[in-house]
Structure prediction request, 346 residues.
Amino acid sequence: MIEMGLRFLKIFISAALIQSLNISVLHSQDVNLSQYYASPLLLNSANTGNFKGDWRFVNNIRNQWMQTNDPFQTILLSYDRLLPIKTEVVSAGLLLLNDKAGSLGYNSTQVFLSASIEKFIGKNLIRLGLQPGFVMRSYNYGRDITFPSQYDITIGDYNSEQPINEPNLGERTGYFDLNIGIIAERRIRSIKPVIGLSLFHLNRPAGQIAGGEREAVPIRQLWFVETDYELRPSIILTPRYLYMRQSKVIDQRIGSNIKFKLPHNRLALHALYTGAYIRSGFSPNAQALVLLAGLEIRKFDIGFSYDSNIAAANKPGSFRGAIEFSLIYRATRILYNRFTIPCDRI
Prediction:
């Protein structure tokens, strides 16, 4: 099992070097959530089973640019659990995602299996993840959409009966996709820094439509760093940084959550938290401000965020934001830990 992990790591490093030399042109971007940390299987396949409990269910909903007639909507569902396989710490899960975008009626449905294995190397905890899946994409442009080829000079206006002459635009496409990930963490006194790297579309599937031709989807690399820092026993600060690159498109996030633990109460409300993040792309100037708030009640972690575009006011889309909802349910472990000895309760 260790040899398999080392081979996986070697492949991972080689793919990262190849991606660093990739300068192909990008024609579209992957799904991107503001509460990226609240969609663990979408962030990194090595996050599969990375939680305290027996199994976990996650739901994310994002509505973007609702002021327009055709807003963008993303819905994500995931389920993962620990698998008792001898002495190995192995986890498996399922990720379902649907993304609808724009007036062309673009629709993407993605189904991924996810698996991870956990190992200690010295004092470092290393998790390796693998995520094979299938992606289905389609367009529905029959809703008052016009193209240059549909301009009818005989009537001096657009004619919906005219052919659109846009090859491949209306067809459905489907392709196999593959993602891999690695996460490392280590306890250093009162903090536990975590760093992760994900590579998406590792097999470069021919699912991209650009200029009427099929092109390979560019590999996307994602780095994230975070840690918990206890300001007080009841106050925890969690600074985070995320860096993504897909071809020449760059996205960065920096910010922090702050959690306030609550004393025992009848509602079983364990904590309240809030946070703020800045998103930027090509330039160091901020493009968006993300404000969020949430609570931990019983076995649920519920979060709300608003993503506000703070670009120059005269640019299209300025101050048009997105609303995002996240829900995480963690089931308490029902199996005895293999290192514990069951005994009668006193």
Remarks:
- The helical segments are 2-20, 40-43.
- Residues 60 and 326 are 5 Å apart (CA to CA).
- The longest strand covers residues 106-121.
- Confidence is low (pLDDT under 50) at residues 6-27, 336-341.
